[in-house]
Amino acid sequence: MSSSSLDLVRPGIHLEGQQHSQRQTRVIGIASMIWGVSILLSRVMGLVREQIIGRTLGASRQADLYFASFTLPDFLNYLLAAGALSIVFIPIFVAHLQRGDNARAWTSFSIIANFIVLICMLGIGVLMIFARPLAALVAPGIVDPSEFDTLVRLTRIVLPAQLFHIVGGLLSAALMAQNLHTLPALAPLVYSAGIIAGGLVGIVYPDLGAEGFAWGVLIGSIAGPFAMPLYGCIKSEMRWLPLLPVKDPDLRRYLWLSVPIMIGFSIVIVDEWIVKNQASYLAAGNLAHLQYGRTLMKVPIGMFGMALGVASYPTISELVATGAVVRAYALLCRAMRLMLLLTFAAQVCLTVAGFEAVYLIWGLAAHRFSLADAQDTATVMAFLCIGLSGWAAQTLISRGFYALGSTWLPTLVGTAIAILMTPAYIMLRERGGAIGLAIASSAAIVLYVMVLGWLQRRRFEREAAIRGTALDESEGMLRVTLLLAVAAVIAIGLGLLARFELLLWLPGVDAGTVLARATILCTTSLCVYIATIWLFRVHELEEIQALLWRTFRPKHTTGAPATDEDQAQAGQRQTN
What we know:
Oligomer: single chain
Structural class: mainly alpha
Distance between the termini: 30 Å
Strand content: under 5%
Order of helices and strands: HHHHHHHHHHHHHHHHHHHHHH
């Protein structure tokens, strides 16, 4: 080929590569938007769901039994590593698609799906048979025969839902591997809608009690997490074949990557099991208070921790895969610092105006959720929120390890923390009741994140050294975390003092008064928090300010003078 021919081809190759990169960026952007909206709506729907549960069951023994009935099903879900399905399966599926071998991709799906269905059905059968003796281990403090029978019955209703959750997770992973995100993102909303519908039926037929919600869980699991991605896979020409060769390399790879999650009992998972187990020894309603407080706390965890984790994970993984571990760690630290700034702000609001938030959601016009229940829930939530940033941070830190191809270390560390902290849960429950359990939960997750964050820094340093580079000493999380924590403590302290004074001026519990009090308390406390971190020169605040300015600044009208930045951008566009 002549030189002139090469000159003609090269621009075409460059243009094609550029267009491919633009398509990838557009796909990632659309996926991030879909999941961001889904996570937000899912948290809102979850809050509505818990609101209906709270207003229907209140802080009663029925509520305790309903929440406790999820322990065995959650254990099965965890044992089959359902939470890791997308992380483990997507690379296997994508590898075949990239080679253009769609048939092998769906063969791998079929083999892994058939294995999961078989093991899941076996597990459900065993747990159904032994539900009664196992329920005694789950909630040893429930000794009343009728209450115990209710717990067993609710557990057996909820158990089959795990089959649809787990298989549906694999179907969703297959769709996401093809950059089809809408149906997997909508599935949790349908699941919550099913529980809400079951609760509304329970309102019409009060004798159902918690059973209405339990049946809603089962129906919602079928309609949402399973049926929606199944429909999407069928449209994408899915081929689910009756194959189960146990020596298949893809099945072996899936099991190898999932084994550490299956056999480990990380504090991230078992914390809720331990809390439910120990709360069964307390008076009726205490488990419900803990669960309602945790539900509110999950809103900022999902909005900030999960959203940033999902958005940053693909880029971090790509940087690690290309050897740019220094840039990957810098991105991880930056995302972590931004997330911590936001979650500490959420902690300030939930601590200072916790009663108002709880009462607005569960207390108004609810006969089974009293003022005392709202106060107890808010108090427990304040202590749970000590670990709020830790819960959000672990979603990012764990993804850093996954990007490095490490699933064993986070699980081993989490299991060690769970073993180490279990006596603390028991001791603090005996001495402090529900508040003691909240303190133990927060201490456990903070300890886990501190140890894992330190190990992750060491791991990235080793990876960088292998490639002949080094991490930037200025990059990290500890300094900013401490500054943000101090700012949050100052804001909470002043906010609680303001609360004491405000109660003298606005003492009512009607909707308008409670909402006004919550607005004043949150606004005042957040202003103190922001002013403090500004004085501490936390640069992430400037990033958020710049982002808000770019998003909400007014557009220039014709004839309006443009800024230097606008002129520079215009010049760059002309150059391009």
